[in-house]
Amino acid sequence: MTTVTVTSPDTISSRKAGVVRLIGLLGLIGGLAFLLVGGVGWATVSSQLGEENITVAEDASFLGGAPVVGPFSAYAQADIINHHAMKASGGKTYAQLEQDDPTRPTVMTASLLRASLFTSILAFGVSAFAMGVGILIGLFGWALLTLAPSAKTTKPAVGTTV
């Protein structure tokens, strides 16, 4: 049997341990809040997009025919809208077209649709970020709670053989 002698004061006062445990608890609560808020944001954007009944065009480079309810389908639809607009305008953007060009309103509408879809993609990204931060904060809180000694823990005195 091996004996270990504790020679350095690796313990903290019960007051400091209590503060660390409180911070850990707040981390768990804050992490859960971030996770829930991010999830609600994701679900809201997804349901709002779903209510628009948008379907990715069949000739899209990916997800053709899929309902637009997530970031990838929104991107696929925005990409094919751009493709169709560029084809209609001969490769010119809205700003490059003459004011009296008959395709200008079509290209403008396409640009606005793409901007709206990109806004939803950004909202999905922010929601995913919030959920990820929530998970990390919660894990840090859990770690603090796990590592901080509870008030019931007895601490060996300096120089005590364990």
Briefly, what is this?
The chain has helices at residues 14-51, 71-88, 104-147.
3D structure, described in words:
One of its GO terms (molecular function) is dioxygenase activity. The chain crosses the membrane at residues 22-43, 121-145. This is Aromatic ring-opening dioxygenase LigA. Keywords: Dioxygenase, Membrane, Oxidoreductase, Transmembrane, Transmembrane helix. With 162 residues, the chain is mostly helical. Helix content is 62%, strand content 0%. The chain contains 3 helices and no strands. It has helices at 14-51, 71-88, 104-147. The model has no long low-confidence stretch (mean pLDDT 90).
List the helices and strands and how they pair.
Blueprint: H1 14-51, H2 71-88, H3 104-147
In DSSP terms (H or I, runs of 4 or more residues), the helix count works out at 3
The count of DSSP E runs of length 2 or more, i.e. the number of strands, is: 0
Spatial extent as radius of gyration: 28 Å
Helix content: 55-70%
Overall pLDDT level = 90
Strand percentage lies at under 5%
What low-confidence regions span 5 or more consecutive residues with pLDDT below 50? none
Instruction: Provide the structure class.
Output: mainly alpha
> Termini, distance in Å?
11 Å
Task: State the main characteristics.
0% strand, dioxygenase activity, transmembrane, dioxygenase, membrane, oxidoreductase, 162 residues, mainly alpha
